[in-house]
Amino acid sequence: MINIRKSHDRGHADHGWLNTRFSFSFADYYDPKHVQFRTLRVMNDDRVAGGGGFPTHPHRDMEIVTYVLEGALAHKDSMGNGSVIKPGDVQYMSAGTGVTHSEFNASKTDPVHLYQIWMMPDKRGHKPAYDQKNFSDAEKRGKLRLLASSDGRDGSVKIRQDNELYATVLGAGESVKHSLKPERHAYVQVARGSVTLNGKALGTGDGAAISAEKSVELTGVDNAEVLLFDLA
Asked: Distance of alpha carbon 71 from its chain centroid, rounded?
């Protein structure tokens, strides 16, 4: 069963400095049919104008992953971390018992385009944690590169939930296939370009919630970058 969520059907907010699309209910956008999928709670497609950003704000009991497509995002948090997140970087913050952070466009003039992803943790009350790793396009080209997992295998970021996050970069005709174990689910988000998912067409910004399928096959149509979640 594959339920496609077209890009234009997502929630939308334009604050001037921030133009964003919500795959799931977030902030002032609420859709009872799209609150979350399994433990995947937030999938925000954010474009932040030069000089714009999110002032210091709190989080608690949430696994947060930031994936930058273009530009650079400056991060500071109450754990003492300060970094600039660029394309290819995967930033992970486990909010646990509580953390505050700020995120600002690192440029005063150029926009930054990113996905902010929240997953619910395996339990409440973890000690806050942070990690950041870079995964080159070459590692994703024509293959599924594991970015995050519960055991940190293959150099992935270790997260506190039984989920796996992969990314792939596909040119026209290139294909990847991911097998799903029984009782596992998947979510696919096309960050850019276009693909087919098990024969169904998906374009930039489209997503798909997948259940009761044995495998997920993605075939590139036009210079695609895709995120794939394997979910409990």
From this structure: 16
Sheet holding 63-70, edge to edge: 11-14, 18-22, 40-48, 112-119, 63-70, 89-94, 129-134
CA distances from 184 to 81, 164, 213 (A): 34, 11, 9
Query: Do residues 100 and 47 touch, judged by C-beta distance below 8 A?
Result: no
Residue 4, amino acid: I
Model pLDDT, residue 108: 93
Helices (H), 75-161: 137-140
DSSP-derived letter for residue 33 is: T
CA distance 32 to 161: 24
Residue 199 burial (C-beta neighbours within 10 Å; 0-12, 13-18, 19+): exposed
pLDDT per position as a tens digit, 178-194:
999 999 999 999 999 99
In this structure, the number of other CB atoms found within 10 A of the CB of residue 80 comes to: 7
Q: Is the dihedral of CA 175, 90, 190, 23 positive or negative?
A: positive
Buried b (16+ CB within 10 A) or exposed e, 118-141: bbbbeeeeeebbbbbeebeeebbe
Contact predicate 190/205, CB 8 Å:
yes
Average pLDDT, the chain: 96
Q: 163-181 in b/e burial notation, b at 16+ Cβ within 10 A? A: bbbbbbbbeeebebebebe
Q: Specify the 3-state DSSP secondary structure of 160.
A: coil
Residues 6+ apart with CB under 8 A from 157: 65, 90, 92, 131, 132, 133, 147, 148, 149
